[in-house]
Amino acid sequence: MKKKLISLLLAGVLAFGLIGCGVYEQDGAAAAAGAADSQSAQAEGGEETAAEETGSTAASEKVFRYSETQAPTSLDPIKANCIEDNEVGHMTQECLVRNTAGNVEPGIAESWETSADGLTYTFHLRDALWSDGEPITANDFVYGLRRLMNPETASPYAFIGEYVKNGAAVEAGEKSVEELGISAPDDKTVVIELENNTPYFLSLIGSSCQFCPQRQDVVEKYGADYAATADKSIYSGPFVMVSSENQQYVFKKNENYWNAKMIKLDGAVLNVIPDQSTALAMYESGELDFVKLPTEQVANYDDVDHEYMNGNEDFIYINEDCDNKILKNKNFRLALNYGIDRNTYITLATNGVYAPCNALVMPLVSGAETTYGEEYKVESFPMDGDNELAKQYLETAMKEEGISDPKDIKVEITTTDVEASKIIAEVVQELWTQSLGITVTVRQVTYADIYGSVFPNGDYEVGYGGWGPDYSDPYTYLELFKSDCAYNYSNYKNDAVDKLLEDSKSETDVKKRMDMLNSAEKMLLDDGALVPLQLRQQHYLLNEKITGMNFFFCSINTDWTYAEYAE
Amino acid sequence: MLKYVLKRVLAALITLFVLVSVVFFMVRVMPGEPFTSAKLTPAVAANMEKYYGFDKPLPVQYVQYIGKLLQGDFGYSMKYTNRTVNDIIGETFPFSADLGIRALVIAISFGLVLGIISALNRGNKIDFICVIIAIIGTSVPDFIMGAFLQYFFGIKWGLLPIAQYKGFEYTILPSVALAFFTLASVSRIMRSSMLEVVGQDYIKTAKAKGLSDLRIVGRHQIRNAIMPVITMLGPTVAAVLTGTFVIESIYAIPGMGKYYVESVSTNDYSMILGMTVFYGAFLIICNLIVDILYGIVDPRVRIATPVEDS
Fold this sequence. Notes:
The complex is a heterodimer of chains A (567) and B (310).
Chain A: H1 2-18, H2 28-34, H3 38-41, H4 45-55, E1 63-68, H5 83-92, E2 97-100, E3 103-106, E4 109-114, E5 120-125, H6 138-149, H7 167-171, E6 182-186, E7 189-193, H8 201-207, H9 216-222, E8 239-243, E9 248-253, E10 267-272, H10 276-284, E11 290-292, E12 306-318, H11 330-338, H12 342-350, E13 355-356, H13 372-375, H14 387-401, E14 410-416, H15 419-436, E15 439-445, H16 447-454, E16 462-467, H17 475-478, H18 495-504, H19 510-526, E17 530-542, E18 546-547, E19 550-551, E20 558-559, E21 564-565
Parallel strand pairs in A: 1-10, 14-15, 14-16
Antiparallel strand pairs in A: 2-3, 4-5, 5-7, 6-7, 8-9, 9-10, 11-17, 12-16, 12-17, 13-17, 18-21, 19-20
Helix pairs in contact in A: 11-14, 12-15, 18-19
Chain B: H1 2-28, H2 42-51, H3 58-70, H4 85-120, H5 125-139, H6 142-156, H7 168-198, H8 201-208, H9 213-225, H10 227-241, H11 245-250, H12 257-265, H13 269-297, H14 299-303
């Protein structure tokens, strides 16, 4: 019997040691440094030997190692659908211009002109190559944008191209892709016509990888599987992706990149680590160079962490179309706004990690010359709230609506079942109950439900939501309250605001346009169209040896294009 | 025997078909849409619905889905827009299975040994220790066990890697963490089953015949007592091998678990269906094997009515 037991144990141990030796992946850093990819395969022989030599000393290679909790949803830049996707696109593709932390630099276009009415952009392209050595031509940009707007592509982010003339019509299948406002008079010139005057257009196409060039032959070769994996794509940017397997995305410097001399890193590895504590532990043990801090850990890293604004603003939508009549009352909406002590809110809801916010437009977006926040001081609800004023507004509202007891006023906050969103709704519920004495309830739905049907169908009273900007301009936030905007989830309609926003589209004087946008913001706040809550700040840890990182609050949060490793 | 096997296979196929059909229609009544983003415009949503064929009537979609399924095609994911569900399962399943097999080997070998030792030493200190281990294993949730092992062995003492799955040393912590629950269950079932068997007449007969204790335990007691463990293994193998969200997440293992859980919260219809069908088929096959094993090990089963799927 004992013999049997022992042999059983031995067999077990043996099996444990033997099985499944096939699944281990190559170490990412080593792969980035030494992998023989399509890039080096077509590079000259001399370089091949160099790569082989350095393959064994991977540690000396300058590889930036970072992590994300989510894998990119698509490696096809045209189908990029979130910040993570767009960041990958920004590293591996080059648009006409390159937006680095808000500064527009030349990209594949070395120069460009804008027509006086701001509607036509003419780009002159430089000599630049794809990662396989083929030249990048004006036609690649035309093909790329047409593919983005083609209904058959079904790009989830196609709306970003609606700024281009006929963009919305092509997207809706009403016009053919040939009618899209982009053309290539010759191989080195791209002309883009816009629907309206869009002063932020360059900034937008420099930070949205959906505007990158596309190679028709490669896209058609793979069809629906295009960019399913790293090898089924082709690259025009500072880095090529050599592997996308097993939740690890390996980048390598693109030797064919037109500005390769400015790129100091040899490569990078994006590790998908779903658990933030695990990522933090890996950073602590030196396995990662950059890690985002989970909000609950921020207090533990007071002296060593850094932060950037990621542009996300959270607020409470007030549905103007719902059955709850009291929400149509301006004084009541103002009471909701004055009834929140935003500093207390921040402490309770986010441990003080995020910044309280009492306006609609994020102050860091571009103004006429500097930032909007520096140029316009928006006076609105005090951060600490004002209970006296809140009660006054409430009483006026009650008189107007013929209500005698504030308890009779019932408001339901709709939020998602994500833990953080639930806490936010509960804190707001508590603050309103205390300051106004009204009856507030919380309703939870799934994330898929809130943006899938609750908000679009106006099936809520007030709802916790937010917005991340697509470009650095006040319009990206203000548009949410324009009556014909698809994202106007509060069904807000104010003719004066609509007119200002519509007129701003044809105003070519930058300062005048900015004044108009500022007036619109003031109107919205005076009307209590929303209850602003917070601006999100991302805390992070970065290896001290690394310099040259850029952070931007829209579309590309972390930009390691020009990162450098100190010796 | 052949008739028995054929019957089980037919039942398994019908179960699978019912599963596919029920899940296909059930995902459609889940609240929310598969394409959800604060920035989705109606035009874009319409284009995406057309791309995935949602503009067609539901029965037509069903027939098309079944048609593709018969060719082994699960379709394209709705979240990971240019990857097929087959591709994702193909990439992630080997990791989940690798981790699962390791965990199972640990769980079954140690669980059986623990259960047998425990039963043979019923009531004394050794039994007490084994029972304590079993209680800890079944009552400590895997996210605590995973984090605990990671903290001490990975972070604090630096003996083993913290996360990821890149070599043998990387597999130890997650497989032990994953094994613990099954190990405890196996040992508990084995212990009680052993104790049940010990009072049976054939054990008395064996004793009366003067067989040695070792022979009685080895030949008669364990062999009979192991039946409930085999029953339990079917679903356990399927569950452990097809990915465990928590352990895979803590140790950043590129397995199936994350995709399965995530697909439900993002309403990724094709992914939910693909993963469920894959998991369901796997579970059914495991149960089928258990049923057939049962028939081989215990002739009474195939003569009497077949055992129900557990």
